[in-house]
Design brief:
With 189 residues, the protein is of the alpha+beta class. The chain is 28% helix and 35% strand. A four-stranded antiparallel sheet has the order 2-3-1-4. A four-stranded antiparallel sheet has the order 6-7-5-8, covered by helices on one side. A hairpin with an 8-residue loop joins strand 6 (132-140) and strand 7 (149-157). It starts with 8 loop residues before the first helix and ends with a strand. Mean pLDDT is 79; it is low at 1-17.
Length: 189
């Protein structure tokens, strides 16, 4: 074997541009119709991304009624922004790109007039915190609008950021006259 045909493990992981690929997480929001997931994957492949995993939350819906999808891709840092831009150019709603994977969950209860204080606005404002995303929601409004209700929120948060997210939720709840029941923090595997 000649020296020219030997490649070290370090060289094998480099890309054609010499930059080492990195793992990136992209959270998408897709319309529930056939072919949407496949269409969202094309810009990733077409721009040099290596698909590592897809978490398609088919049973859950975002506050806008779409399906949340988390895609892990591997690519050089200089290609990542091109991939995100290509997704947006194709009309794919990119919720979050490049943030570390969520490592903790925060479960809490909001109690009060949840419905009339605009639940959609509350959820949007909670998710505007760059450190949390809504993973699950259960609403109980036995008296309908105008009555006492409760919502159990399960929020996925970045590792070590649950206190900040809880403070953010508490601020929103205070503005809306809602009570927050202390959280239960769970570490995801």
């Amino acid at each position: 074997m000649s020296d020219d045909s030997v490649t070290s493990d370090a060289d094998a992981h480099e890309t054609d541009g010499g930059e080492r690929p990195q793992t990136h997480t992209i959270r998408l929001e897709l319309v529930d119709k056939p072919g949407e997931l496949l269409s969202a994957l094309h810009p990733i492949a077409d721009n040099g991304g290596n698909l590592l995993s897809i978490f398609h939350e088919r049973g859950n819906l975002t506050p806008r009624g779409h399906i949340p999808v988390e895609v892990d891709v591997e690519c050089p840092p200089d290609r990542f922004e091109t991939i995100v831009s290509a997704l947006r150019d194709e009309g794919v709603n990119v919720i979050q790109a490049g943030a570390e994977r969520y490592g903790e969950e925060l479960t809490l209860l909001l109690v009060g007039d949840i419905v009339d204080t605009d639940l959609s606005d509350t959820l949007r404002r909670i998710e505007s915190s760059t450190d949390a995303t809504l993973a699950d929601l259960s609403l109980s409004a036995p008296d309908g609008r105008g009555g006492a209700s409760s919502a159990r929120l399960r929020l996925a948060t970045r590792t070590g950021r649950t206190d900040e997210v809880f403070d953010h939720v508490h601020t929103i709840a205070d503005e809306k006259g809602l009570n927050v029941i202390e959280p239960l923090v769970e570490v995801s595997e």
